[in-house]
Amino acid sequence: MTIHTDGGCLGNPGPGGWAAILQYGEKRREISGGEIATTNNRMELTAAIRALEALKQSCSVEFFTDSQYVKNGITQWMAGWKRNRWLTKAKQAVKNRDLWMALDAAAGRHEIEWRWLKGHAGHAGNERCDELAGEQMARIKREHSAAELAEALRRFKAETVGLDAAPDLFKAG
């Protein structure tokens, strides 16, 4: 199984989109979605989560992302975060902990080789994901007024601060 993902947003934070392409031999599936107010990193993580959740059974995956944040987070940083009860080395709450925990759960079902590739460098899978994510961002902007977008952004900022600063309610591991 090969997976390509991408995520982004218009402004950071702002309206966001994510996309994934899952390919096994000749079979190919494209999935995408978006959120009215989010960050680029949250969309990158969401793309990875949704792609892995779309797999019906455990499998071996070659996973391509243009996000160093996603690749390094899952391959280098997560074990330490879990040992430290989802705190960074600086004893700060891990940003996007909700999505990191979801990605950890989704990835745990599979054998994954995480590969980083440079975005906007002509990789067909990455370019298509970027296009699909962009379509989601454009859809959100079309479907919502400026006032709705501004209110969603205000709520997102307030909720995100609360989420990332919340006391640790999770068991280690």
Short description:
The chain is of the alpha/beta class and 173 residues long. The chain contains 5 helices and 5 strands. The protein has helices spanning 40-53, 68-83, 97-107, 124-143, 146-165, and strands spanning 2-9, 14-24, 27-38, 60-65, 111-116.
- Strand arrangement, largest sheet? 3-2-1-4-5
Report the span from N to C terminus.
Answer: 28 Å
Mean model confidence by pLDDT? 91
Shape descriptor: globular
The number of helical elements comes to 5
The CATH level-2 architecture is identified as 2-Layer Sandwich
What is the topology?
Elements: E1 2-9, E2 14-24, E3 27-38, H1 40-53, E4 60-65, H2 68-83, H3 97-107, E5 111-116, H4 124-143, H5 146-165
Parallel strand pairs: 1-4, 4-5
Antiparallel strand pairs: 1-2, 2-3
Helix pairs in contact: 1-3
Structural account:
This protein has helices spanning 40-53, 68-83, 97-107, 124-143, 146-165; strands at 2-9, 14-24, 27-38, 60-65, 111-116. With 173 residues, the protein is an alpha/beta fold. The chain has one domain: Ribonuclease H-like superfamily/Ribonuclease H (Nucleotidyltransferase, domain 5). Strands 3-2-1-4-5 form a five-stranded mixed beta sheet, with helices on both faces. A hairpin with a 4-residue loop joins strand 1 (2-9) and strand 2 (14-24). Helix 1 (40-53) runs parallel beside helix 3 (97-107).
